[in-house]
Amino acid sequence: MAKVKHNHFLDTVDHVFSYAKKLKILHLKMQGKTFDGRTIQIGGSKAFHFGTTGYLGLEQDKRLKEAAKQAIDDFGTQFPLSKSYIAHPLYEELEKLLHTLYNQPVVVTKNATLAHMAAIPVVVGDNDAIVLDHQVHWSVQDAAKRLQLRGVKIELLRHNRLDLLEAKIQELGAKVDKIWYMADGVYSMYGDFAPVKDLLKLAQKYKQLHLYFDDVHGMSWFGKHGRGYVYEQLQQLPAQVVLIGTLSKTFGANGSFIICGDKLMQQKIKTFGGSLTFSAQLDPASVGAAIAAAKIHLSDEINILQEELQDRINYFNKLLAAYKIPLVETNSSPVFFIATGIPETGYQLTQQLLARGFYVNMGLFPAVPSIKTGLRITISRHNQKTEIRQLVENLASLYPKVMRATGNSLKRLNKYFKKEFSFPEQALKSTNYTLVQQNSITQIDKHVWNKHFKGKGILDWEGFKFIEDCFKTHKADEHKWKFFYIQIFDANNKLMLMAALTISLWKDDVLAKPAVSKAFEHKRKDDKYKFTSYVLSLGSLFSDGLPLYIHDKVLTDKTLQNLFFTSLENIAFTHKASQIVLRDFDFSVKYDKLFQAQGFITLNMPEVCLIENLNWNTLEGFLVRLSKRSQKHFKRDILPFRELVEVEVHSEVSPSVLTHYYALYKNVKNKNLGLNTFTYPISVFQEMNKSKAWEFISIKIKGKAMSKAIGVMFCYRNLGVTYVPSLVGINYNYNKDYQTYRQLLYESILQANNAGFKTVDFGISANFEKKKLGAEIKAKMAYVQSSSNFKMDYLESKQ
Prior knowledge:
Its cofactor is pyridoxal 5'-phosphate. Helix content is 39%, strand content 21%. The chain has 28 helices and 26 strands.
């Protein structure tokens, strides 16, 4: 019955990327007829290239280019046949060279993504479990999640948390055969490392633990013969380790390879790794270039190349420290992440650096949390010290200016990243605005509040007073909410912004699909607070609608915007709320731009149902508003059943009747997980029973002596304008025979119309049933700011 439309994660990512594309941050096109690796031409101008993953610059080496050309001359642009049948002759030479490099056989694949798709389904058994490091590369996560179709258990673990990994091993140990922990050797955003040696010790302690590493960012620039970060830590591959390396990126060519400590397992992958069998083999040019690159790796020359790169890395680190540029992780890798916090700062800094002749990548959601964006800068041998110094000098010049222009600050940055950055910052502009923060609606002028929120759901002054009475002083953590009312005035005391917010305990799966919530509820049997978090939200978990008034000036005045957003962040930080959720917006380009710039990502909220312009006097007057199909539905599924029941409307009922109503409400709540919140306590319904703004529409079976209600609708009356059937209770034993739910919907409309209300606000869920009675379905958006992506990614892994 209570079907809810859920957000799709890819829609959120597409929204972020589309916005970044408009700002010319993503999906750029290189211009020019040649490319030397040192500079790149974009938008008609050349810029020094600080965004490559070819850290040693081998992709521009003449020997690799000549080898690729010769391979094309000898074997053509491709060898169009599955490698399972025949491999072109260059493959054998490449595999021999890689065998020499690693002292054991390797399996060559077309790229790392296909390597994971070939290896993971073979090495992981049906009775194994996979534990993914939260920051392991998408290609690993995607290949692993496909095994859920085979029933393989998959868990997501916070980044590099070996204590949590050990606890997970102990939890899963008796239930599965092997536990595969999958991680990167060098992580592609912050350039930090996996604790490989500690992981190996853990694998020696727990024989079930097996390790799977993607080391594509650790290859060539690190280790003897450029064998990579992971192999350098291990020296040789134990039987319980699988390693994926690359022939692309720093290696200089194209392709990837798989090495298993278990030789039998490696042979199985080579024999029938799905993507090896059913995809084309590497083209001759790529294999030819890889052969040339492998020979360089096996020579002493690789040491010189590594030293030259490390010299540049050390130089860049030294300059960043000298100029106090906020580097998130200081290490020896060629990947650097400069913290910018909110996206607007990152966008502007990236654009202005490009205008000055420096191309850098921007790290943004979903690779990093939306308020932890930054500049992802990579150093290669192509970069000379002159332009490295120029880049840092320009960073030092632009950084404080852009921070100030976007309303960002050192305080906000340290809060986001939990660091103690220190850099010369320019003071923010003084403000002529006054922010007033209250913690009760009783401190807000009723006339001022209702001027903006009269007739909007349960958002009028009396509505919030009711919600405060229910939840402000409750003893249970899930029902004890904090209330915040923000008003911003200009120098003339004119209202610029007004908002109502609450901090309350949300179930992390509140908007997840019912099947996910069902699994989570099973885990909550022993601890109802498991997978819950405190959230700062516009409005409350009891009400729909948008309790936010924004004067048009807010959309153009950065000072006003920053005053509002920093106040939200301060509230969330002070009260340890893990998310800020601004919900129930109609889609608007102007709001979208405003919130995305401040680090809020978009989510599609459940749609809401409204019936407006109530003004009919007869049944025929109601029916004419419906489509012909809906009229047939009404005459077939509602009208005949009205004769079977008695409808009563009460503003107050006895305690025993209220207890029965509450039991009916819990029937519905326990059955529907489409919007998974905590069950409201009976005290909420007791407050309804005392309030003049609430009434109960109940349905009983006609002619049945001493019968109890088989259904009830709990309805809020918003100042004679909007009628809000807020909650429903049903005895499901009678729902089919008496069409209880459908009748309650119609009786709510009838009661609202007869009482002179203009609108019925049905809120969310059961849209199809409400639409058949004339409701208009309206899409709603939410903007979410989170200090971590982990919970969102964890939920997505369960979908």
